[in-house]
Design goal:
The chain has about 325 residues and is an alpha/beta fold. It contains 12 helices and 5 strands. The radius of gyration is 22 Å and the shape is globular.
Length: about 325
């Protein structure tokens, strides 16, 4: 491993003290419950997820601010994880291009074991801190980038190796775990703890821990895109029009915001090269496609700012 500094992170052999590994008193008779009782139990336990998000609201907001500023300056956002945590990061990253028309390299998911680990268990690979560091070096992560390490139990060597390497390269680092800081410490710029308590099935962090992680990533990526001007009101005006469903959504956005007929919206959408944001700008300002593109570029793609600069009215 000549391309990166040797990384060493030894996860504790005994993890029973970790919050994510403890037995949940509420599910001690899990194997004796009826199907309806199982559903009710899951429902009660999942109520802890929203409370955990609320308790982590400040570090989540800080992560949003840091990531938005980094991407505005030309950086990228990376999620790093293993197992369920890695799959959730890859999922969130993969949904950004169709939702916000971002280039695939802007938000990326890195999972221990690579693409094959998405469909086949490869949890043994999470124990190699040097592989996490190598993944950071391979993507040439630098000081404008943001690296989010995701590990429910907080101890995954692959994630710690990646975060250590990212910090050495000057990147902003964010840590997401479902155990308190006094159980697993970390050196990161933003430390997000999503404390949902022990799982119904002891140690199965694909349950509450996975759910709360998915919610946190939803909040993080969507809020970053809002801050980058990829949303107007609550509409995804940067949606990539790549299939019938998204074409229909684009037309509905245009109809709702312009009160044009569906046929007029379809024509406007084609004139704008199927860009909802550009179509709206052309309609509201009277600019042609080229002039509209120039104006949007001047305002870093922020539709509201572009419109207000051309026609300073509400």
């Amino acid at each position: 491993m000549s391309s990166v500094e040797k990384v060493s992170f030894e996860a504790p052999h005994e993890r029973g003290h970790l919050l994510t590994e403890q037995a949940n008193p509420a599910s001690q008779n899990l194997d004796e419950l009826s199907s309806l009782e199982l559903v009710d139990l899951f429902n009660r336990e999942d109520e802890r997820v929203l409370a955990a998000i609320a308790q982590a609201r400040k570090p989540l907001a800080e992560a949003i601010d840091r990531a938005a500023e980094a991407l505005r300056r030309g950086g990228r956002l990376f999620y790093v994880g293993a197992g369920t945590s890695g799959r959730l990061g890859v999922l969130d990253a993969a949904e950004c291009p169709p939702t916000f028309c971002t280039p695939p390299e802007l938000v990326q998911g890195i999972i221990a074991g690579g693409a094959g680990a998405l469909i086949r268990s490869s949890e043994d690979l999470e124990d190699r801190a040097e592989d996490g560091a190598e993944a950071i070096a391979h993507r040439q992560i630098h000081d404008l980038d943001v690296v989010v390490g995701i590990t429910a139990g907080g101890t995954t060597p692959y994630v710690h190796g990646a975060l250590h390497a990212a910090r050495q390269r000057g990147a902003t680092t964010v840590f997401i775990a479902c155990v308190p800081a006094d159980q697993v410490g970390v050196q990161a710029d933003v430390d997000i703890r999503l404390l949902v308590g022990p799982e119904i099935l002891a140690g199965s962090t694909r349950l509450k821990a996975g759910t709360v992680t998915k919610l946190a990533l939803n909040i993080l990526s969507t809020s970053v895109m809002v801050r980058l001007g990829k949303v107007y009101g609550n509409r995804m005006v940067d949606v990539a029009v790549t299939n019938r469903k998204l074409h229909d959504r684009a037309l509905r956005i245009l109809r709702d915001l312009t009160e044009l007929s569906r046929e007029e919206c379809a024509l406007l959408l084609e004139k704008s090269d199927r860009s909802v944001k550009l179509a709206l700008l052309m309609h509201w300002t009277g600019l042609d496609r080229h002039a509209g593109k120039v104006l949007l570029e001047q305002h870093q793609g922020n539709l509201r700012q572009a419109v207000m600069s051309h026609r300073p009215t509400p």
